[in-house]
Amino acid sequence: MTKALIIGGGIAGAVTAMALRKAGIDAEIFEAYPTGADDVGAFLVVFANGLEALRVIDAHGPVVEHSFPAQRVEFLGNDGARLGERPMAGTEQGTDLGPRTLRRATLYQVLHVEAARRGIPVRHGKRLVGAETVHGADGRRVVAAFADGSRAEGDLLIGADGLHSVTRTLIDPAAPRPRYTGQNTVCGYTRDARAPLAPDTYTMIFGKRAFFGCTRAPDGEVWWFANVPGPELDRTRAPMTTPDTWRARVAGLFSDDDTPAADIVRASGDRVIASNAYDIATTPTWYTDTMVVLGDAAHAAAPNAAQGASMAIEDSVVLAKCLRDRPDPPSAFAAYEELRRERVEKVVAASAGMAKLTASGATGRPTRPAGAPERGSAGADDWLTGYRIVW
Fold first, then answer.
1. Angstrom distance (rounded) from CA 163 to CA 297
2. Can you tell me the distance from the alpha carbon of 69 to that of 80, in angstroms, rounded to the nearest whole number?
3. pTM to 2 decimals?
4. Residue pair 354/304 in contact by the 8 Å Cβ criterion
5. Is it the case that residue 119 has pLDDT exceeding 60?
6. Using CA atoms, how far apart are residues 45 and 71, in angstroms rounded to an integer?
7. What is the DSSP secondary structure assignment for residue 374, as one 8-state letter?
8. DSSP string covering 133-194
9. What share of the chain is helix, strand, coil (3-state, %, to 5)?
10. Sign of CA pseudo-dihedral 154, 54, 323, 342
């Protein structure tokens, strides 16, 4: 049986392993960190396209069970005026799997529980430092080397190792590095917010100095995020800014607006986390004869379109299908790139357009992000949802 080495034990790694198992390919996950479930304070949306891809491999159930609906988006200006409302992307497609909100750590956990149930092994503390292709009597193989001195051998290596991917640089040492967008993404939670928020709805606020979004969970807790301008945070050091400091800074950015944003932030406790927003416009080389990248390792979008997890899930299932249907890894990798590159780069471009819009402190009606078709035109929202994976 063909064996795949999956580098990275996050969301993309777990889904890739399950998709490969469905395709009849053995898979083993190698995770750099001693434990998982990072970004414990952040939350995300898995859109209909991501859930449909999970349904292809029968893994959507736990995600739906541990999340809540995101049906609509309403927009407010900095003066509190309501600018409009629209369905969340995917809800108008007629699918029974609409967008769902959940914590990133929860998504990680339910996917890993499902992968473990299917007998997929995960090796922690395995930081990739090198890989080489070897030729022997059994054909072409790839050997991965890890920082602890151990090695692993397989028929192919899949880099699901995220934004700062080691696999990407092994495939192409000249590959572009992630670009800091100039914004920090801050997330928080509160049970004390008095703002009247509609159920199953994201309220998006175009503040004078920053952009804000929030939704109310079924238990009444308000989950919020803010895209705020600021310097890049040092990823190599422990956070120097406390939750109290972030709370005061974010509330201050919205204090001059006539919206509920500042009050929601002030009502939050210590569960406030900040991160950098990055993107990679394009990665020229996705694969070699034995190695390939997917998810953020191949195409990182700024978080504004909220499609990072869904795009990675789609990648995982499409790659597994190509490996099942093609005669060898190189031809499968080529088919996978042909199917995916245009779609994911449109999402990256659209998310970058949204980032520019929200960074500008725009106070008028929200406009179409760069790269997205006009709403109401033929194929509207296809850049996000008009893609179906037939296994």
1. 5
2. 25
3. 0.90
4. yes
5. yes
6. 11
7. P
8. EEEETTEEEEEEEETTS-EEEESEEEE---TT-HHHHHH-TTPPPPEEEEEEEEEEEES---
9. 30, 25, 40
10. negative
130-to-17, 134, 170, 177 alpha-carbon distances in Å = 21, 13, 7, 18
Distance CA 317, CA 243 (A): 38
- Of 3, 37, 36, whose CA–CA distance to 17 is shortest? 3
CA 335 – CA 323 distance, rounded (Å): 9
Residues 6+ apart with CB under 8 A from 313: 11, 12, 15, 46, 50, 53, 54
| Token representation of residue 328 | 């060898």
Name the nearest CA neighbour of 41 among 94, 103, 84: 103
CA 124 to each of CA 7, 148, 160: distance values in angstroms, whole numbers, following the listed order? 11, 11, 14
Which residue in the block uniquely carries the two structure tokens 């238990």?
Answer: 219
- The rounded mean pLDDT for the chain is 88
Beta pairing, strands 291-293 & 272-279? unpaired
Give the contacts of 378 (CB within 8 A, at least 6 positions apart). Answer: none
- What is the DSSP annotation of 282-345? --S--B-SSEEE-GGGT----GGG--HHHHHHHHHHHHHHHHHHSSSHHHHHHHHHHHHHHHHH
| pLDDT tens, position by position, 45-97 | 999 999 999 999 999 999 999 999 999 999 999 999 999 999 887 655 555 78
Q: Strands 26-30 and 291-293, how do they pair? A: unpaired
How far apart CA 301 and CA 348 sit, in angstroms, is 4
What is the radius of gyration, based on Cα positions, of the chain? 21
The DSSP secondary-structure symbol of 228 reads E
Q: Is 182 exposed, middle or buried (0-12, 13-18, 19+ CB in 10 A)?
A: middle
Return the half-sphere exposure (C-beta side, CA atoms, 13 A cut-off) of residue 362. Answer: 18
Chain centroid offset of residue 355 CA: 15
- In one-letter notation, the amino acid at residue 64 is V
pLDDT at residue 352, as a whole number: 86
If DSSP codes are grouped into helix, strand and coil, which group holds residue 109? helix
Gap between the Cα atoms of 322 and 292, Å rounded: 12
d(CA 291, CA 176): 17
